[in-house]
Design a protein that fits this description.
By secondary structure, the protein is an alpha+beta fold. It is built from 16 helices and 21 strands. Bound molecules: adenosine-5'-diphosphate and magnesium ion (2 copies). The site of one magnesium ion (MG) has 3 residues, from β6.
């Protein structure tokens, strides 16, 4: 089979048919809850919504690399669970005594709070992770491979809306057959995407492990969240399929509504009628950025939840495990072996084959710390700037420094802050790929050259040195205009997409 020609996408379609496709796409999105709250202040009970930004055609993605990404997810679930349970490793890499917590204030604050708590003894040994491993296709001459962008351990969003987007593209296929524009656009090339039930299965597993009748799951959310429907779909699934109720609260609300019992650190939340409800699981859709912690009160609330008996998704150590620095350290010799090949620690069933390790490593780009061997890390970053991106220990998009901007940035970066940054080789996605991007409001679909990023969701319930259960949990595609370096849908740079296997 000849390699897929990415420059031939999207297939040709007449203006009239494109208008019909767009009509069917946006009305589907509006009818099926593929939605955002509008920009600006909203009434307490919203009265209107807009469709999420979407692509008209799904992104072409080779079946081989898609299946590889799905296969890798189980290993990543186990790997990051074990990192989160390795206190010594996290202290060394992320801690505020010898690790990057010394120079990165936010990392240091989280780590210090966790250290204080564990010295007093933590009430809950289990952790829950809802993960998303992100990838881009990397093209070298005619060779295509799958390369990891990053691994997220906190607040991974768009699970629900990505399922809705895949369903939207499938519905376009059913209703219009995409006007026979491409032989690839047939139902059997649209893989299923059950991310809502998949992610909720993880939350329900934690709730079941907690095992108290009538307890609820707490979603810790940001005030004025526009991506609320993505979260609500998880709530509906929890209630309808698992009979589990959800309470949503911001850190500020929790500052006076969260109570922890003296006796055994049970977490209770005051409800409207003031009868407290017990919390089985705390699911963070906030707390990943310093912006969520404007004062010490929000940190105190986070630490209170951390010390409670509720199962946290994620715990502080699991959040720290998701740091870019950890991703870089994993590429150093022997580190992957520490977590995946130690039979004395994990037993004969708990170790992975050399082939599995090789497949993981093949999916990584080169990375190093800016503090590498004195000046060498910075020197290499300056010399190779045009092939690199620099990343700090931050989540949520908009924090990286790219290519031409690197030398100037290195000039301005105080040497003491270098350890908080990693350099990563740039992935080169196929050139010439285009799509029609549709945003609410304008009524236009804009054809532009794009890059599509695949995310694979997974979850893991673990503790006491063991992974209790873990699973792959669906996928996501975000497509951004080629000229924007960052890929955040929420920040307006990209659209939700799905994929067609080629
Ligand atoms: P965040 O945690 O803020 O999402 P990422 O590591 O995902 O940080 O970087 C944000 C975006 O930057 C990615 O979605 C991707 O578009 C781009 N990016 C990051 N790393 C690379 C890379 N090595 N090559 C090309 N693009 C990258
Ligand atoms: Mg990212
Ligand atoms: Mg991230």
């Amino acid at each position: 089979m000849p390699a897929f020609d990415f420059t031939q996408w999207p297939p040709f379609i007449s203006d009239k048919d494109r208008v019909t496709l767009q009509y069917r796409a946006t009305t589907y999105a509006l009818a099926h809850g593929l939605l955002y709250l509008p920009v600006g202040a909203q009434p307490p009970a919203p009265t209107s919504a807009i469709h999420a930004p979407i692509s008209l055609f799904p992104a072409p993605f080779p079946r081989v690399q898609f299946e590889q990404a799905q296969r890798l997810q189980s290993i990543y679930n186990v790997l990051y669970s074990r990192i989160a349970m390795d206190t010594e490793f996290l202290d060394q890499i992320m801690g505020a005594e010898v690790g990057i917590g010394r120079v990165d204030e936010f990392t240091g604050q989280l780590w210090s709070g966790w250290r204080d708590l564990r010295e007093k003894g933590l009430a809950q040994p289990l952790h829950l992770g809802l993960f998303r491993s992100d990838y881009l296709l990397h093209q070298r001459d005619s060779d295509l491979s799958l390369k990891q962008v990053e691994f997220n351990t906190i607040s991974s969003s768009f699970g629900a809306l990505s399922q809705k987007t895949a369903e939207m593209h499938r519905s376009l296929e059913t209703s219009t057959e995409f006007f026979h524009a491409s032989a690839h656009l047939t139902a059997d090339n649209f893989p299923p995407n059950q991310s809502i039930s998949g992610l909720v299965e993880g939350l329900a597993a934690a709730h079941a492990a907690y095992n108290v009748d009538g307890s609820r799951i707490l979603f810790v959310v940001q005030a004025n969240e526009r991506n609320i429907f993505d979260q609500l779909w998880l709530e509906y699934e929890l209630l309808e399929k698992h009979s589990i109720h959800v309470v949503r609260r911001t850190f500020d609300e929790l500052a006076h509504q969260a109570k922890i019992s003296q006796k055994d650190s049970t977490l209770f939340i005051e409800t409207l009628d003031r009868s407290p409800v017990e919390i089985s699981t705390v699911y963070y859709r906030s707390g990943y950025t310093p912006d969520d912690f404007p004062t010490s009160t929000q940190f105190q609330t986070r630490f209170n939840l951390e010390r409670s008996k509720a199962i946290k998704c994620p715990t502080i150590p699991l959040q720290l495990a998701g740091g870019k620095k950890v991703q870089q350290i994993l590429t150093e010799p022997g580190v992957l072996e520490r977590f995946l090949c130690d039979e004395s620690k994990y037993g004969p069933q708990g170790v992975f084959s050399t082939r599995a390790l090789a497949e993981l490593r093949e999916s990584w780009m080169g990375m190093w710390g800016l503090d590498l061997d004195g000046e060498i890390g910075v020197k290499q970053a300056r010399e190779r700037a045009l092939e690199l991106v620099l990343k700090p220990q931050r989540e949520g998009g908009g924090n990286n420094v790219y290519k031409e901007a690197i030398p100037g940035f290195l000039e301005s970066l105080p040497p003491g802050e270098r350890p908080a940054w990693i350099a990563m080789e740039l992935i080169s996605p196929p050139m010439g790929l285009k799509n029609y991007l549709v945003r609410a409001g304008s009524g236009a679909s804009i054809e532009t050259e794009v890059v599509s990023e695949l995310g694979i969701f997974g979850w893991s319930l673990f503790g006491g040195g063991k992974v209790i259960s873990e699973k792959e949990a669906g996928w996501l595609v975000r497509t951004k205009g080629k000229d924007s370096n960052e890929g955040g849908v929420a920040t307006g740079f990209s659209v939700l997409d799905s994929l067609v296997l080629v």
